[in-house]
Design a protein that fits this description.
Length: about 350
């Protein structure tokens, strides 16, 4: 794609980067109200059956994904036109989803600025090693990477790590505003949880809240993972990296059934989002449908997305993801032999 066409594409999508307050408020209502009703219904159902309460809690967990998308838009200052409204709404939805607004806003901005850049990995993204790096790595580093990419650990322990550790502590060197927002988020969560436990008891609270957090955590990690981990995804060194290509070729169009698209806040239009983060979630589909070049982005479905589990290492020579099994023969050769290939 020529530079002229890239500029034209960005300009076309930028036309949708105009938040609509009425739509935003409507989305808050049709997201938060069902979530709280499901939470209450799950609690009331405990008097009937645990087998009724837990499924209701799990459905409430699905709605947490939609709450997170609102939070996510607020970190891009795209949900409302007013920045203060974005910060307040983002902080509140961050408390509900256990994400500190300022901390995640910084990390996610870096993710957008460096996505698919092989020389700037490490902040706000999924750990990706190239074939060359993996072969040259020590046994312990390869083991750490294999554990990290293991689905049981990534999706089983991932939510626990995210909610209890990663989101609870400030990074070294965090600025005052970021530190205080994290403290505010943690303190608010502690107070709300304490009041809920006091009101309904710790057992009832855990029976409802744990499935909500686990379901939302697993689905959230999956959505973030799958939209950059597809077979022919785009990765380049800094010298060759291009923002538009990283957005359109390095992010997938996750074509979901309409109900799942609604619940996930249309985040499946990830290529549109990366091209213009200021487009609110409720305009992503319109931007995609109105911009023909974007419709050529890699499309994955629920079924085809399952294949991404076996994509573990990026092969820079062939511009594709490969499995550990495909790389295994290289580990049995002298490392100097790999360099000669």
């Amino acid at each position: 794609m020529s530079q002229h066409k890239q500029k034209e594409l960005k300009k076309n999508v930028a036309a949708f980067a105009k938040p609509d307050q009425t739509v935003g408020i409507r989305q808050l209502i049709n997201t938060l109200v069902p979530f709280f009703l499901l939470w209450f219904a799950a609690y009331q159902s405990l008097a009937v059956s645990l087998w009724l309460a837990v499924p209701l809690a799990m459905i409430a967990g699905v709605f947490v994904i939609r709450i997170f998308i609102i939070f996510h838009d607020c970190t891009h200052m795209s949900f409302f036109q007013n920045q203060k409204a974005n910060r307040i709404t983002g902080t509140i939805t961050g408390i509900l989803t256990l994400f500190p607004f300022e901390k995640w806003k910084r990390d996610h901005s870096i993710h957008h600025a460096t996505s698919s850049n092989l020389d700037k990995r490490g902040t706000g993204d999924v750990w990706v090693m190239t074939v060359e790096e993996y072969v040259a790595a020590s046994f312990w580093r390869r083991l750490a990477y294999r554990l990290y990419r293991n689905p049981l650990i990534m999706f089983g322990l991932g939510p626990l790590y995210l909610f209890c550790l990663s989101n609870r502590f400030n990074r070294k060197g965090a600025k005052r505003k970021e530190r205080w927002n994290t403290h505010l988020t943690n303190g608010s969560i502690a107070v709300i949880y304490a009041l809920m436990i006091w009101a309904i008891g710790w057992q009832a609270f855990l029976i409802i809240q744990l499935p909500i957090l686990y379901v939302s955590g697993v689905l959230g990690i999956w959505l973030f993972y799958v939209q950059h981990q597809f077979e022919d995804s785009y990765f380049e060194d800094e010298s060759q990296w291009d923002f538009v290509k990283a957005a359109v070729d390095g992010s997938s169009y996750y074509k979901l059934p309409k109900l799942l698209q609604w619940v996930s806040g249309s985040i499946g239009y990830h290529h549109v989002h990366h091209l213009s983060p200021r487009v609110p979630n409720y305009k992503l589909e319109e931007a995609h449908e109105s911009t023909p070049p974007l419709q050529k982005a890699t499309t994955i479905t629920l079924l085809s997305s399952l294949k991404s589990i076996r994509f573990r290492l990026y092969d820079t020579a062939n511009k594709t993801f490969v499995s550990f099994k495909e790389v295994k023969p290289l580990l049995q050769k002298p490392r100097t032999g790999f360099q000669d290939q």
